[in-house]
Amino acid sequence: MTLPKLNIDIPQVGYSIDDGESVLRAKLSSGPSRLRLDMLDAPIGAQVNMVLSPAQYQYWRAFYRTIIEHGVLPFLLDLVVDSAIATAHEVKIVPGSLRTGVQGDAHIVQMALEVTLNPYDPDTDAAFVAIYDSFGDNASEVLGALEHLVNFDLPAVMP
Description:
159 residues, alpha+beta, Elongation Factor Tu (Ef-tu), domain 3, 2 domains, two-stranded antiparallel sheet, 3 helices, 8 strands
């Protein structure tokens, strides 16, 4: 089933991510706390603040009422969560968290979301950490050059 996508860009400063639901912490009477992983791929929380034009607000309300049935159904929203660029994530509105207001011509929408993380490859993450440890902020350039080598240069010279 393809989920509907909310086609409103949210500035990165317009939300915050709470990454803390997958680890359990047990305080001890002495010494450091004990930590353990509770759930793999646990959803994370996000607090979203949207400042919308009148047309965007009308779109949001129509999307909310009809497409996601007053927040009951999940939908896709572009967020910067797992990578440095915005990617579509499945989200659900936390019941009771939706707030709206008006400031002049701006319509403010605030809500808490439950965000499902996209699948990731631990080997790719480990490789990126190793490359970043070696090249620092130039890691993306190194990966871009490697991608060009593998996808364009080598196929052009190999039979």
